[in-house]
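Quick check before the chapter quiz. The format below is the same one you will see on the exam, so make sure you can read both the input and the output lines.
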Amino acid sequence: MTEQEKMLSGLQYDPGDPELTAMRRKARDLCFRFNNTHPGNFEEMTRLLEELFPYFGEGSWFQPPIRLDYGCFLRIGKNTSANYNFTALDCGWIIIGDNVLFGPNCTLAAPMHPLHPQERTQISSEGSVLQPEYSKPIHIGNDCWLAANVTVCGGVTIGDGCVIGAGSVVTHDIPAYSLAAGVPCRLIREITDKDRIMPIL
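Here is the expected output.
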């Protein structure tokens, strides 16, 4: 089993693996080029986004700057948008639905590290330093809004139609059509038709 296969299976893997290191360097190079493209050069920005995200839904757009580990382990639905400083540590699958809105400074973090300090940093028989990690996937349903400065931790599923309040740290699953906020993020209440402020189009 390769280190990439271990990584995507949620098993402990070596992030210093040469193949994974090369993939991260490629993603960071593409991010750098995207983040530094003139905002008037929409065609080049679109091309770079499509190269970064093989699974990028029609009508979706991410505002630079963005930061990614790999990019290829995100699946992004249709009409999804992210404001400035979107960060995705996608060493595990991150699945994002249709019509999702990310406020500025949102982070999706799939990596997990051992709790015990002696397991976080190890010395191999050859004398090299190893810092093993594992990953947990993240799922964000359709029609969600994650406000500014939200962090979603590995292993979390956010159901369809949710709103996550600004500054929240989401460590547990959030059921569909919920308003949730806080550190750690907690369910506040269900979102219902009483929350409508505009007529149905």
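If your answer matched, good. Residues 52 and 139 are 19 Å apart (CA to CA).
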